[in-house]
Amino acid sequence: MKIALVHPQIIRATAVESFLIEFARRLSAAGHEITCVTSLTTPEIAASLPVRWELLPRLRGSAVMRMWHFNRLAPRAAVEAGVDVSVGFGRSCVQDIHRNGTGCHRLYGQSLPLWQRYSLRHLYELHLERRLYTGQETKHFVTSSRTVATQLQAIYGTAAERFHILPPPVESQLFKPAADRASVREALCRKLQTDPQQPVLLFISLSHRRRGLEPLLLAMKHVHATLWIAGKGLNAAQRDLIQRHGLTAKVRSVPVTTNLVELYQSADWFVHPTQYDAFSMTVLQSLACGLPGIVSVMDGAVDHIRHGENGFHLHHPQHPAELATAINTALALERPQWQALANTARETVTHLTWERHMREWTDVMDGLQASAAALSRHSAPFAF
Q1: Which of 8, 54, 88, 181 makes the best surface tag, with the fewest CB within 10 Å?
Q2: Are residues 322 and 366 in the same domain?
Q3: Is residue 8 part of a domain?
Q4: Model pTM?
Q5: Which DSSP symbol is given to 307?
Q6: 107-145 confidence digits (pLDDT tens)
Q7: In this predicted structure, what is the pLDDT of residue 382?
Q8: Are residues 145 and 262 in the same domain?
Q9: Is the pLDDT reported for residue 71 higher than 70?
Q10: Domain range enclosing 63
Q11: CATH number of 342's domain
């Protein structure tokens, strides 16, 4: 099959782009002819992917103008490449399939500071999202989460049958429980100056404000545990908040060089009070490591949290009191109960392999081709 993958930039900058690069590599390895339609990549990526590149002009200056320009040129480039199926990953509105990796922008916008909500870029992205889901230029949508698909259907009235739910794969051979958890935990606690006898909560984020760090810190006033904060350092305001509320002894900012797998393997609970996320891979990674989570229902990955079986749902992540209650409920579990949740957490995601994910994608694309062929036959003129 000839497939076009369409995205304004194909570099290792976001989770969407990292997925796209691996997706392209696996499609090519399966024998498909891949064309990457983009305005920006790197020599390293261009050399490593056995694909055809269609590099479009990239405007300087305004991000809004770049989005408009790419959205105008990309559909034509995919058609001229002579592909059977085009798959868009960004703010493009015209393709056969759109793979949503960022969720519902309208809901995401509610977590932005007021000045960003009224920025030209945000308003234009809202316009493109509305056009994508209310128009007919794209026939099929792939989302990682049923939660996100439901959100988009409710807001834009898009027909449910146009959506395909394909959960992302998780590297279960890398993200797995430690063979000797006690030793790994003790070594890491010593490194992070944490009492190994105290429960450890793990928070991972590159966007502390949106991911709910402030309400989590306020909740920590009522929790007897240590909080590890990983992914990004703390700013001055966050450090001041910790000091003002007397949390210095309870909170550790984890150095960015710390092994992520060891963090999952050593903590007792993964805490994820995000205001909005399309699908946080940290949720799947923590489950794969046998780490139960307390996860906000505003993350699409909550699809994989079965309340009371492999973790807990958090319905109001911005309420410190509810967050503290949820954490204390989790910490009150006896060790055998926690271990049962940890075992179920691991079992929840082991089937989410790249092999399964690629088979599901092949089914979607084959179905699209079959529908197009059937439509072509029915619309063909009669021969006399």
Answers
A1: 181
A2: no
A3: yes
A4: 0.92
A5: B
A6: 999 988 889 999 999 999 999 999 999 999 999 999 999
A7: 40
A8: no
A9: yes
A10: 2-169+353-370
A11: 3.40.50.2000
